[in-house]
Structure formats: C-alpha cells, structure tokens
From TrEMBL:
Organism: Stieleria magnilauensis
CDD domains with a match to the protein in the record: AAA (cd00009)
NCBIfam families registered for this protein in UniProt: IS21_help_AAA
Residues of the AAA+ ATPase domain: 97-232
Name by which UniProt lists this protein: DNA replication protein DnaC
C-alpha cells in the first residue's frame, strides 16, 4: 500500500479499512474479485470495526458494576428463573414497545446478574443503556441538587433507551428519594424502558422510600406496562458455603457413627480387630 493512500484513509478515519486493505488486495487478486465485490468487502471491514467501537463506548457509558453475560448464568441452579423469559427480554421486544420489567426476589438469586446481562445484549443490538444502583441514583440527585445540577443529572437518567435501577430494598433511602424516583419514572413512562430489581416485596416500597404516596404513584405508572419476574430459591453466593457445610456435617456424622459400628463388628476403620476382652475369672471348687 503506498503512503499517499495510507494517509488518505487516515484523514477519512477509515481505520477499519486501513487495517485489512492489504489482505483484501491479495484476496481480490487470488479470487479474481470484480470491483463491486472488492468494494463490498472493504466497506464491510470498516463497518465491523465501527460497530465494535460503538459497542465498546456504549458499554463503558452504561457503567455496569460487573462484567456479566447470559452465557455465564447457571439456569440449572435456580429453577425459578425461566430461560425463555430472560432471553425474550434480551431480544429487546419490550424496549421497542417502551415497556418495563422488574425482578423481585431475595438477595443472591441472580437479579443483578440477569439485568446487567440483558443490558449488554441490548447494547450489542444498538440500544443505549445506563446502569445504576438505586442508592447511587438518589445520591446523584442529592449531590447535584446542592450544586444546582438537577437538570443535567436528570438528563442522564432520561436519555438512555434502557435505564437499569438495581438493588431496591438493600437499605433505607434518604429523604426526598421518592420525589427523585417519581420524576424519573414519570418522565420515562411510555417513552423509554426501565428495568428494576427489588429485594423486598413491592408493598414494602412505601417504607423503603419513606413516602407512601410517592411509592404508590411510582408503582402505578411503572406496573402499567411492566413484566414482573418473581425469583425464589437459593443464593448463588452461599452455594459453595452450603456445600462445605454439608461436607463437614457428613464428616461429623461419620465420626459419630464409627464407634457404634466398631462395637457391632469388633473391627476398626483400618481393618484391625480389637483385642478381645479378658475372660471372666471363675473360681474352681476344691475337689472332695
């Protein structure tokens, strides 16, 4: 490739084409591609690179807490999580309809993993996503309100195609939380999609927010077109811990039953017989 062509591609910011042009030129010669076929190949290379970079930028902007994907989720561990239901959400039809979704269940059952994984898939399909824990969301508004930045921070929550609010119910929210959350839900209602996770039943939201009217208004709008996914079962975080406890308990049970078995068989775990007990002494009567 001559230097003049290289510089022109750089000025046009066609870095994807630049990376593969040498290989495509050789391919065109060996396969005897016509001009249209060759042009299609090099333009496809450029589009792939641009798409990858866009996904990388959107993933960074989403601010996910964990690097999770659906392929990492163990659907066999917790049968209450329906694979088809989750993959249907990841397909994005609810986003196109401007519907919402909420996952309700105890801590550790995989809610955060699932919503972040769905968010990553939606980014690959061309949507914008923003992830935030519910507590960090409220803290953002409280911080920026003090510096008169309310409109700026609100736009951050209103602009994405999909907003993910995670961990409702993990801790008591500060005052005015209900006002902030209500404004987000109200402004996004029927215009953008929102996914939420809750560790507490929905009827407890009034206490968590400290504002029953706001909680009622939030749920009234949110649940109008939301898919509610109830998750029950064991905690993924305690999976290894419980297995260790079962192993330890089995060892204790075995240790406790061993002496009893030895008494019955007269044989220890190593296979050696116990020495017999001393014979009972008898006193011979003198002969007459």
């Amino acid at each position: 490739m001559n230097m003049n062509l290289r510089e022109q591609l750089k000025q046009l910011r066609l870095s994807g084409l630049l990376q593969t042009l040498e290989v495509r030129l050789q391919e065109a010669k060996s396969s005897k591609l016509d001009y249209a076929e060759f042009l299609e190949l090099i333009l496809e290379d450029e589009m792939v690179v641009r798409s990858d970079r866009q996904i990388e930028r959107r993933t960074k902007a989403a601010a996910f807490r964990d690097q999770k994907c659906l392929d990492d989720f163990d659907f066999d561990f917790n049968k209450s999580v329906k694979r088809k239901q989750i993959y249907d959400l990841a397909a994005g039809d609810f986003v196109r309809k401007h519907h919402d979704a909420i996952f309700v269940g105890p801590p550790g059952v995989g809610k955060s993993h699932i919503v972040q994984s769905i968010g990553r898939q939606l980014i690959r399909d061309g949507y914008t996503v923003y992830y935030r824990s519910i507590f960090d969301c409220v803290r953002d508004f409280l911080h920026d309100e003090a510096f008169e930045g309310h409109d700026r921070i609100l736009n951050r929550y209103l602009k994405p195609d999909v907003l993910i609010l995670d961990d409702m119910g993990m801790k008591q929210l500060p005052k005015k939380s209900g006002e902030f959350l209500f404004e987000i839900i109200m402004r996004r209602h029927e215009l953008r999609s929102t996914m939420m996770t809750s560790n507490r039943p929905l009827e407890d939201w009034g206490k968590l927010i400290g504002d029953v009217p706001s909680a009622t208004a939030i749920l009234d709008r949110f649940l109008q077109s939301a898919e509610v996914i109830q998750i029950t079962g064991r905690s993924f975080r305690l999976r290894g811990h419980r297995a260790d406890k079962k192993t330890d308990q089995a060892a204790v049970d075995e240790a406790e039953t061993e002496p009893e078995n030895e008494l019955k068989t007269g044989q220890s775990k190593t296979g050696h017989k116990r020495p017999p007990g001393r014979p009972k002494k008898t006193t011979k009567k003198p002969a007459n």
